[in-house]
Amino acid sequence: MPGFREYDNYDALGLATLVRNGEVSATELLEEAINRTEKINPTINAVVQFHYDEARAAIKAGLPDGPFTGVPFLLKDLNILLKGTVTSMGSALFKDYKATLNSTLTERYIKSGVVIFGKTNSPEFGALPVSEPLLFGPTRNPWDLDRTPGGSSGGASAAVASGILPIANASDGGGSIRIPAACTGLVGYKPTRGRTAMGPVIGEGWGGQSISHVVSRTVRDSAAMLDATTGPEPGDPYAPPYFAGQFLDEVGKVPSRLRVAVIPEKIGSGSYSSEIQAALKESAKLIADLGHDVIEATPEVDGPALQYASVALLGANLALKVTEQLENLGRSLEDGDLEPGTRGLIEYGKTLNAEACAKASQINHVSARIMGRFHEQYDVILSPTLASLPVPIGQFMDSDIGEKLGAFMANTSMFNQTGQPSISLPLVWSESGLPIGMMLSAAFGNDALLFQLAGQLEQARPWADRRAPHHTSAAAYLG
Which of 66, 183, 277, 396 sits CB 3.0–4.6 Å from 113 for a disulfide? Predict the structure, then answer.
């Protein structure tokens, strides 16, 4: 079947419109995505589970009529379940873990009309900001193959940035949507806590810190997918403020004059590199030039306490996950089940008592109160998504990663801990041609405002037509 050469000219909503109008079929789009995967995946290692036959069968059975009908789609190989397929969590301990049902979010994706044809790479249990599990090997950044595409949704971001598809599932427990989006020049939106569903087999992710959504090339795709998947499910522990409109409609609205707080330095350990500091100043000027008031201001949260709480809840939750899987398998932990770094984090989690876990939870909730008061003065917070450019492959594959994490990560995790909506946009590019993500965050529940501002910035400084050197439209991958 000849390829659909115009594929790169459309975002996901654009492709769905073509299908709806009969200009291209869902089968043609799927085969184009599969063809691109087969050509570039050996280079970037973004896709690790392949569900081509299941995708073809879904089209043959008839797709639901939704906003994304016929659009190829990839799930992340972490926590989200597709019945009858493996979700490995990037871990040898789960390499044969086959789902017996769909996650609620999977059901909502299917109802939106997407065609799921595989799953993307992530670090073991999503615990690192890079995607280099021993089970599958590292995913590489289409902008520079020697650098990481970030994590934990690194496979998803590499797949979108390389042109395999325009939108892919991702999840974020400490920055895992925004970090890879920053590394690969994409839109990475972390919704308000509770906007998307975690069930039915997961009560909450990482003590309420984790939530799922997508990485995409355009702001409107992210907004439309949130419209298609948002809403509580029975028994949800969290309920964000109800939004009666459509997030997609907010993308075209010009926001009123905003008070934007710029955080000039990192909160907690480490600092921004000089290139990131310059990018922050450039982004602040861009926002000011759009008519907003930009003021340097930092919320009075306790950085070290937030770092403790994030790691404590992560370690405790991963320890529980491993214990439950070993009970399912009816055996004890064996050599080779876990990577050394993950094992150390889990052993730390097992040392925590109930008081320590309660303390971590209280730190997060108190920090949310502080941020709530901060947003009574400021509508939006601007800060870098990362403290440095994407790091080389292998940077975090030894046991001594504390200082390295501080030099790479910025303050993404803080907004997981407070539950606020937060988005990374590729507003600046380095001298070497790498994307630099800038992070915008709003008050709890104010997703609509972020989509307004993100849409305004996308129009002022468009990025969707930029192509990475290792893109499926490049000469090396055509034919």
Answer: 66
